[in-house]
Amino acid sequence: METTVVSTSTLAPDEFDRNVPRICGVCGDKASGFHFNAMTCEGCKGFFRRSMKRKAAFTCPFNGSCTITKDNRRHCQACRLKRCVDIGMMKEFILTDEEVQRKKDLIQRRKDEEAMREAEKEARRPRLSDEQSHVIATLVEAHHKTYDDSYSDFCRFRPPVREGPVTRSASRAASLHSLSDASSDSFSHSPESVDTKMNFNNLLMMYHEQGSSPDSSEEEGSSFSMLPHLADLVSYSIQKVIGFAKMIPGFRDLTAEDQIALLKSSAIEVIMLRSNQSFNLEDMSWSCGGPDFKYQVSDVTKAGHTLELLEPLVKFQVGLKKLNLQEEEHVMLMAICLLSPGRSDCSGANI
């Protein structure tokens, strides 16, 4: 039976090393791989295949010992074919027509099976409905309209003042840097709600009135130098959270009492989620524009907060950051947090 074209794909060990030059054993040209049991170029592969197919009998016009190179390989077919055989090329490696067809069929079948697997995988992949996609797009737009990632408004706050006596809490704040090695599992243990530490209204009152810290008796004479600036920052952030909430589909359909209850109990938590956008794992800081608005844990202790309160919140920031959430996931998490029907003083009838 007549034979036809096919090269084997047997690879030598050197084939796996991209740094080893591959040279045709017949003419010295750049080789394309192992063909018919020898490393050859495409030209010599085709020449050997055609010669075997035709059962050609060549005669050297010279003395039968021509040197075959890339430039003269067409000059003497006899010596070129002899060189092919000398380096190990074998006609037995040329497949018959039936073998060629079987090989083609096998390759095509594998391609079809792979395409079918990909199609089945794609079909099983959950897809969002048009309504769900619209809600997510609305939430992302609401976030963009109520969160300025240039932090340009921070210049309008009372300026941050970092001088003055350092409280005991501030002196211990550096220990929080070790949290950068904390496992992402820490996110599964959400920090105790700030609302359980202090009433929401009392928190605002403390910021605005710049009242005494719970540590005042322990640290007499301590200066809460960052309190005015952070008071403005928190007030500003709460206003933005309220704006975000009003743009959540269905939020305005709730009763005024439920809207207030949800905002009152979730605003600080949503601020924590939002602040993660500016949180930096490398130095455990919040970068909000220029150097004046790069906040360390020690800055927050200078507003009267204790390390006991801050430590779980920073752990939360670390865990959340390590989740590497997409923007859509981050925004949906904020909406879920805000609309949780389990809030105290919330009827939850329409949530």
TrEMBL record:
SUPFAM superfamilies: Glucocorticoid receptor-like (DNA-binding domain), Nuclear receptor ligand-binding domain. InterPro entries: DBD_VDR, NHR-like_dom_sf, Nucl_hrmn_rcpt_lig-bd, Nuclear_hormone_rcpt_NR1, Nuclear_hrmn_rcpt, VitD_rcpt, Znf_hrmn_rcpt, Znf_NHR/GATA. Signal peptide: none annotated. GO terms for cellular component: cytoplasm; nucleus. Residues 131-351 form the NR LBD domain. Its main location: cytoplasm. Pfam families: Hormone_recep, zf-C4. It is found in: Cytoplasm; Nucleus. Residues 108-131 are annotated as: Disordered. The keyword Zinc applies. PROSITE patterns: NR_LBD, NUCLEAR_REC_DBD_1, NUCLEAR_REC_DBD_2. Keywords: Cytoplasm, DNA-binding, Metal-binding, Nucleus, Receptor, Transcription, Transcription regulation, Zinc, Zinc-finger. One of its GO terms (biological process) is cell differentiation. Residues 21-96 form the Nuclear receptor domain. GO terms for molecular function: nuclear receptor activity; vitamin D response element binding; zinc ion binding. Belongs to the nuclear hormone receptor family. This is Vitamin D3 receptor B.
